[in-house]
Amino acid sequence: MSGAETGAVRGGGAADRAPDGAAHGARDLGVLAPDGAGDGAPPLLSAEQVKVVFPGRRGDREARAVDGVDLDVRPGEIVALVGESGCGKTTLARSLLGLVTPTSGRVTFDGKPLEYASRALKAYRRRAQLVLQDPSGSLNPRHTVYEAVAEGLRIHGYAGDEQEAVAGALSRAGLRPPERFFLRHPHELSGGQRQRVVIAGALVLEPELIVADEPVASLDASVRGEILALLLRLRDELGLSALIVTHDLGLAWNIADRVAVMYLGRIVETGEVEQVLTAPRHPYTRALLSVLPESETEPVILTGEPPDPSRVPSGCRFHARCPVLASGEAERAGVADACRTRELPVLPGSGPAAVACHWAEAVERAAG
Amino acid sequence: MTPHDTHEEPAAAKAAPGGGTPLLEVRNLEVTYARTPGSPAVPAVRGVDLRLEAGQKLGIAGESGCGKSTLALALLRLLPSTAKLSGEILLDGEDIRTMSWGRLRAVRWAGASVVFQGAMHSLNAVHRIGDQIAEPILLHGRATPAAARKRAGELLEQVGLPAARVQAYPHELSGGQRQRVMIAMALACDPRLVIADEPTTALDVMIQAQILRLIEGLVADQDLGLIMISHDLAVLSDTCDRLAVMYAGRVVEEGPAKAVHAHAAHPYGRALSSAFPRIGDLASRRAPRGLPGDPPDPAAVPDGCAFHPRCPVALDVCATQDQVLRVAGPGRRAACVRVGDDEGGAGAGDGAAVAREGAGGAASEGVSETTGSGS
């Protein structure tokens, strides 16, 4: 039902602006079955050895917020970037959108490195859009829904029928009939409707990729499922790629194809969702899963907060909190020294499941 | 018929083994707000009964706007003056609704205290946290300033922070640490009842686990009563003994927490419990489940069952007939036409053709003879 509707709107948009239609045509060919999710396809968005270092203030040590990350998002793929507050996931997401310039390493989109001149970035943001968390904070209370969604079109000098594009984006975001919402203000909407307006604002420029930072963290349980279903449908119908930054592993299970678990500036485990979340190998991933309500394993509650990116421990960066090292299991596997002193390699950005853990590697080697 | 016709029996269903006065007993509580002076009052809580024993943990679940936070604030009369309360709120047998202001001030903090959501907004940014924790102790005249400061340090240690953090300002703490401070404040005057409103909603999973473990430990050690409010049924069922699910200002389902979460009898309870997936459950993989629509405007609650416009298994009768809580298994009640023996029998007959998930809803049928002897 919405497919036909969406198709009509998109068709209209493309006819109005041929040059962009061409760019989107390439993406349409890349629409993939949900399960295939771009196996073998070149990545649409790629982080290569990205580091983001913030200088310390007043003689403080510098903070290595992102400390060497490879991460790919392929066309039509939904990737969940999971980790605790302060692990660097939001900084990584911002660097992928060109909002933060990496200190070293690079970000490529559609095979080409990002350019950081403002004109080039503006063109890039047409193709890769950010969806912010907390819709109440990211919508201007004095703007109507129409103005909020049309803002992107105006910034980019959209030449087509603005009203039609806004209506199309609103209906794709599940606000139907769209005309009914044009003149409403944010305070007249429910939390779920506000989040849909924010998503419509991102969709109106027909991006190829969205980066969503905690898209459902501030929403009710009942609305959460609705918004996640919307993101899934946008991928299935438009081939929209998504990187979703979250601390919510259930979200990854609900909609993502791949998951990357981040800890203190590095990705420590990555792979297909089924594999990583049902058979986690890294002690950190295991701990995160064990504390979920209804988890069948004994909860492993890590003490303290995630450590400080200005004091990244030597060796494995998780070793100071690692329950496997603390319990002596790592010692028995003969890797305790390595855990404390030997740094782990950066995991590949896509491909088969991978883990950055001396202990997991040793155990798996021993098992053959 | 009104929903309150059946109010006499249900409390007995949850009576503690020894009987006697429960820690908290709420009887037919109603809260209405006047939106503007002179306009008709809008009901936010529409007749709620609750009962809680010391050492017991009760979870209250529901969406924003279902009245759960209004209910929590009403328990200590913390609502604005435009709110009107009726019914009884008995804390250790004493009615909070009718007590004098002086007595109420004594009961707040010392009898019952609240852990609010959003610790950043609830703490004063320009005062050291030690002073904020000591403030209620001093106001209650329980200690000298020096002793209150010492007690603040002890409370911080009790919630897992170094006592030296009394010197810290709120911005110097992380979200999880601030939530611990909120809990320390709530414990400052040794209350018997703690009301926690979404205590972990904005926190990471690991910090959430730490805070829930802390709350559970404190309740067990000090024999407190706990009311925990959340929209996350999975978290509530993990922490609490009993669950009450609220919709449009009423409790629409209640019972033992694990049973309600695993096999909710009310379609609304089922929608909430499937909102957060269990990882490994293939039915929820790439299949997020939500509930279309929004909770009703309190000023225009639908006729009949308030949930019927959003209900996936509604019958014709739901549009006209208000549903009251009825027995839905041992120690369980639900306000749904498909539950219980009287109308439920007819409902199940109609429903078999209409409802695809009738089986789940009817799981509790046939045990209604065990009238409320559970718990």
Automatic annotation (TrEMBL), chain A:
InterPro entries: AAA+_ATPase, ABC_transp_ATP-bind, ABC_transporter-like_ATP-bd, ABC_transporter-like_CS, Oligopep_ABC_C, P-loop_NTPase. SUPFAM superfamilies: P-loop containing nucleoside triphosphate hydrolases. Residues 1-44 are annotated as: Disordered. Keywords: ATP-binding, Nucleotide-binding, Transport. Residues 45-289 form the ABC transporter domain. Belongs to the ABC transporter superfamily. This is Peptide ABC transporter ATPase. It comes from Streptomyces wadayamensis. The lineage of its organism: Bacteria, Bacillati, Actinomycetota, Actinomycetes, Kitasatosporales.
UniProtKB/TrEMBL annotation, chain B:
Residues 1-21, 342-375 are annotated as: Disordered. GO terms for molecular function: ATP binding; ATP hydrolysis activity. The keyword Methyltransferase does not apply. Keywords: ATP-binding, Cell membrane, Membrane, Nucleotide-binding, Transport. It is found in: Cell membrane. Residues 1-11 have a biased composition (Basic and acidic residues). It comes from the Bacteria. Transmembrane segments: none annotated. Residues 364-375 have a biased composition (Low complexity). GO terms for biological process: peptide transport. Its main location: membrane. GO terms for cellular component: plasma membrane. It is a peripheral membrane protein. Gene3D superfamilies: P-loop containing nucleotide triphosphate hydrolases. Belongs to the ABC transporter superfamily. NCBIfam families: oligo_HPY (TIGR01727). PANTHER family: DIPEPTIDE TRANSPORT ATP-BINDING PROTEIN DPPD, OLIGOPEPTIDE TRANSPORT ATP-BINDING PROTEIN APPD. This is ABC transporter ATP-binding protein. It comes from Streptomyces albidoflavus. The lineage of its organism: Bacteria, Bacillati, Actinomycetota, Actinomycetes, Kitasatosporales.
